[in-house]
């Protein structure tokens, strides 16, 4: 079998890249280790930056998002019992974010791929990458006990943090940068009306809290918990009473509780590899970088990489601009590092860390007072939250 681009991984990165290439008439095949249902069961953050929304529209997969997604013109921060609105739209000259779950984005992309009759192989095993530096790259994989081979021009490694693509780059070329945080987030999804119409990011001495929604009748809440806690230690009742203790009375009184549809603990990590290209292999999304969920940049940075790689590949195929291939990694990384910085900044601003000394605590408190107390500070938060602009590929 032969195609132009082999895409490894059918998460949001692989599916979005596949759809954009498909629309442009650039041949591609997606290889995914899991089943479609398995991919759709993963619950992740649900905030789309303006640029991600625009890219989904450009890909022609925004119909349901535009009908059902909730446009948010602001978010709220909470500390020392104070509620501080951050009017995103006003502070950024009209930009907003869209509340629409990643699961729904993935579902829409899967539907679109079916309609466009894109070629995808799910439940494949043992994906291997060959001749990445040469003229004839190819990928092999196993399906129904048989080994298949696809020859291609380029390989997009969209296979997430645990994928094989990153590992295909020699260790002496790849540099890793990492920070692991000493706590996790316990998330709970429930069919209850959200406690607030805007997102709430709250610092509290008992631990950070995030209140969000998936729709007007479905809520998503998170509590900072020690990494030593297992999810079984957290009954629904314990979750709700802890959440109430960390919210101001007026909000706690408004909170509607219900049984959990999903509950899980996620560790927090910042991780980046450089470079994001090796010969004809391009790493995209979680395969190259992870952010802590504070700030909801994971999916948005994946979309950012897709944006650059898609525009570069289009120019390569239609304008013969092979010179642009080398610019993917530096261009993508410039935006990735800014997203990493913001997620790290938000995490440091809003969580107490074990082992912090009194000076560190005072600095953290001063950061909160400054950033959330001045228009310049709020504007910095707002412009990062709605997403920094993309560089032009030319
Ligand atoms: N072969 C084929 N597919 C693989 C392999 C492999 N060896 N390893 C992993 N995969 C698949 C996974 O099963 C998964 O479906 O690659 C896909 C990667 O998807 P994601 O992990 O969702 O990564 P990505 O598409 O880059 O999306 C980034 O996901 O983790 C969140 O916060 C992150 O929102 C961001 C988004
Ligand atoms: C979520 O809704 O899951 C969510 C929202 C915002 C974040 C992280 C997670 O920063």
Give short descriptive properties of this protein.
394 residues; FAD/NAD(P)-binding domain; binds adenosine-5-diphosphoribose; binds P-hydroxybenzoic acid
How would you describe the overall organization of this protein?
- With 394 residues, the protein is an alpha+beta fold.
- It has a domain at 5-70 and 99-177 and 269-353: FAD/NAD(P)-binding domain.
- The protein contains 12 helices and 20 strands.
- The chain has helices spanning 12-24, 36-41, 50-58, 63-68, 88-91, 102-115, 236-246, 249-254, 298-319, 328-350, 358-371, 375-385; strands at residues 5-8, 28-31, 47-48, 70-72, 75-79, 82-86, 97-99, 119-121, 125-130, 138-143, 146-151, 154-157, 175-190, 200-202, 209-213, 219-225, 260-274, 277-278, 281-283, 289-290.
- It has an 8-stranded mixed sheet. Strands 8-2-1-12-19-18 form a 6-stranded mixed sheet, with helices on one face.
- Helix 1 (12-24) packs parallel to helix 6 (102-115), helix 1 (12-24) packs parallel to helix 9 (298-319) and helix 9 (298-319) packs antiparallel against helix 10 (328-350).
- 45% of the residues are buried.
- The model has no long low-confidence stretch (mean pLDDT 97).
- The structure holds adenosine-5-diphosphoribose and P-hydroxybenzoic acid.
- P-hydroxybenzoic acid is lined by residues 45-47, 210, 212, 220, 293-296.
């Amino acid at each position: 079998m032969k195609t132009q681009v082999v895409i490894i991984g059918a998460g949001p990165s692989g599916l979005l890249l596949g759809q954009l290439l498909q629309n442009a008439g650039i041949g591609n095949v997606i290889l995914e280790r899991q089943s479609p249902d398995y991919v759709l069961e993963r619950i992740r953050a649900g905030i789309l930056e303006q640029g991600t929304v625009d890219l989904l529209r450009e890909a022609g997969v925004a119909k349901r998002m535009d009908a059902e997604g909730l446009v948010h013109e602001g978010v709220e921060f909470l500390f020392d019992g104070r509620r501080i609105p951050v009017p995103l739209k006003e502070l950024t000259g009209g930009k907003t974010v869209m509340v629409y779950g990643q699961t729904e984005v993935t579902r829409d992309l899967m539907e679109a791929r079916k309609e466009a009759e894109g070629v995808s192989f799910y439940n494949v095993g043992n994906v291997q990458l060959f001749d990445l530096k040469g003229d004839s790259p190819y990928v092999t994989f196993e399906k129904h006990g048989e080994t298949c081979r696809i020859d291609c021009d380029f390989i997009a490694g969209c296979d997430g943090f645990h994928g094989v693509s990153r590992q295909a780059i020699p260790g002496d070329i790849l540099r890793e940068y990492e920070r692991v945080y000493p706590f996790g987030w316990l998330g709970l999804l429930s069919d209850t009306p959200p406690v607030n119409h805007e997102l709430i990011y709250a610092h509290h001495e008992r631990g950070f809290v995030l209140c969000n929604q998936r729709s007007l009748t479905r809520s998503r809440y998170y509590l900072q918990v020690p990494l030593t806690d297992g999810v079984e230690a957290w009954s629904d009742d314990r979750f709700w009473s802890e959440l109430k203790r960390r919210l101001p009375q007026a909000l706690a009184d408004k909170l509607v509780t219900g049984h959990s549809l999903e509950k899980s603990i996620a560790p927090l990590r910042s991780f980046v590899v450089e470079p994001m290209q090796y010969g004809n292999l391009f790493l995209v999304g979680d395969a190259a970088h992870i952010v802590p969920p504070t700030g909801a940049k994971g999916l948005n940075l994946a979309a950012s990489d897709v944006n650059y790689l898609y525009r570069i590949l289009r120019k390569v195929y239609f304008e013969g601009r092979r010179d642009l291939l080398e610019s993917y990694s530096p261009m993508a990384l410039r935006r990735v590092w800014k997203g990493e910085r913001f997620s790290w900044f938000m995490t440091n601003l809003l969580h107490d860390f074990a082992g912090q000394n009194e000076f560190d605590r005072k600095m953290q408190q001063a950061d909160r007072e400054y950033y959330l107390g001045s228009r310049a500070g709020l504007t910095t938060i707002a412009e990062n939250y709605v997403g920094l602009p993309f560089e032009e590929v030319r």
